[in-house]
Amino acid sequence: MDVNAAVAAAAAIAGVLTGVIAMLAFRWSEREQKRPTRTSLHTDPVLPPGVDTVLSVLRSSAVVLDEADAVVKASSAAYALGLVRGGKLAVEPMLQMARDTRRDGEIRQVELDLPRRGTGRGEALAVSARVAPLGSRLVLLLVEDLTEARRIEAVRRDFVANVSHELKTPVGALSLLSEAVMGASEEPEAVERFAGRMQIEATRLTNLVQELIDLSRVQNDDPLEDAEPVRIDELVAEAIDRCRHQAGAKQITMAAGGTADLSIWGNRGQLAAALGNLVENAVNYSPARTRVGIAARRVTAPGGDLIEIAVTDQGIGISDKDKERIFERFYRVDPARSRATGGTGLGLAIVKHVAASHSGEVTVWSSEGQGSTFTLRLPEAGTARDRAADDRTPGLDEDDETGQTDGTTTVSSPYEPFSAPEVLP
User: Fold this and answer.
1) Pairing of strands 61-65, 124-134
2) Is this structure's pTM higher than 0.90?
3) Of the residues 6, 82, 127, 224, which has the fewest C-beta atoms closer than 10 A?
4) CA-to-CA distance for 24 and 291, rounded, in angstroms?
């Protein structure tokens, strides 16, 4: 019995010791797990307080990198631009900037041209990248997309250069012709010939200045401030009357047809100028003894009925490569022919802006050697008035300065001509 008691006591003591040792080991293990290690300091980065909120409201694309160049935080814009892929910064120059800034703490900025993601045309994406340290371990990269700003600035420079060139040509011609008149003062026939040329150049200069004024006015004015119901029949008659002399000289027949008694809501002067420019272009670019038709009709659309005014000619037509640019300022399909007809290259730009400011659009169908059809689509009077009540300022984006607006499109699609327009005398 003494032996058994001793064995039992020894077993109990051993069990107690084992339990104590196990408990101590468990507590020591928990303490070691909670203790920060060098590895955990590098693999679990945390943004400073408030930084996440600030990055979420920035317009720039934002990327935060840790010591291992892994992306800790990236905005949706950064993913959209293709800056971040697979949790890594995908642009090597920016990655190198981040490493240099992490090493010496200096803020760096550079402008880069990056391939545009998702296109096979090799278009460049212009960006400005700025890198700055964020605390002691993180680096912040901010990327601003400069592509649209650069394009607008380039178009504005081209516009100024084009205006200077277009003004210089008639002014220079007038100067030379005036010298020729002075030198031929004793030759009446020469004086008459030079004076006729001076009159042509003066008219060209006057038309250019007037169209520049018209273009500036349609861009800056709200057409709905002085809006009124405008009858399509009156606009068509005015446009035909404006071009009657040129059409008669070339024996071009002008015809009007379509649905009668249609009206649109807008600025009468701007609408008359837009339609007049389309008809004038049709006459100027049509060969002799051909036909120009103007017709209107009502079409049903989801947002309300539209009025289509189509101007069809049998002229030289427009090539596919020119269709996307014909509404740009000073762009002319045939510069030599434009000089002969007195064209300035601003007429279609005015048409485009008038259409956009009236919540409409202008489209074109054309085939070389077969003619062209330009179509104005504008809201009918009642529909347009309702839209004006909802929004007094039809949206024109920044492309207005470039001659390209969201509200106006160039579409290369066939347009079925109206049948049997009425021939006007």
Assistant:
1) unpaired
2) no
3) 6
4) 104
